[in-house]
Amino acid sequence: MSGSHENEPIRGLPGFLPEGERILWQGSPHWPTLARTALHLNKVAAYFVILLAWRLLSLATDDVPASHALLGALWPLPLAFITLGLIALFAWLIARTTVYTLTNRRVVMRIGVALSVTMNFPLRVIAAADLSTYANGTGNIPIRLGSDDRIAYLHLWPHARPWRFSRAEPMLRAIPNAAHVAELLASALADCHAARPVANIASAAPAPLPSNPLTSPSA
Predict the structure, then answer these.
(1) What CATH number does residue 114 fall under?
(2) Are residues 61 and 143 in the same domain?
(3) YdbS-like PH domain: from which residue to which, for each copy (predicted)?
């Protein structure tokens, strides 16, 4: 692991590539998808909608004038906007500071918002990989490691397969054109393992994303 990427010789990589190694793909998470699927932006928004509706209903049943009831019910709105804005900003920062790299020899994950680290996963230690996609073409590729080395779930989050705490699995999360990246990874694994069937990349049925896509914060 390396602690800073300010002086990276190649974006997303801690050093120059050795002779014979080449980059097959580089990418970063799609931040609106990351906000919805990893940071649960829509669930938080739904919570505030329910809270507003409950406040409005409770005030209406107390024979409060409609104008007063409306004003009384809207007090959570500033908190809702601040909370949702912070979640969206955090997702944007994660995407901005994350670089996933696939080479013909390894998978590299440069992750971390406040403290950046680079994790290398040689293809020879990858036992299998899976694929799940969303309706907009983005998706996740969790990686199962065949070695006995273990990584703490919190060290990886949100770049980890959900609910795999005891044996955390690194995951390329919310990446655009995930199916194509999965094909590249499967091909690289097959070449690395001399065509042995160690890669099991299974495409899941597309899961619909919520409507009203977010827009990136302006610089």
Answers:
(1) 2.30.29
(2) no
(3) 96-184
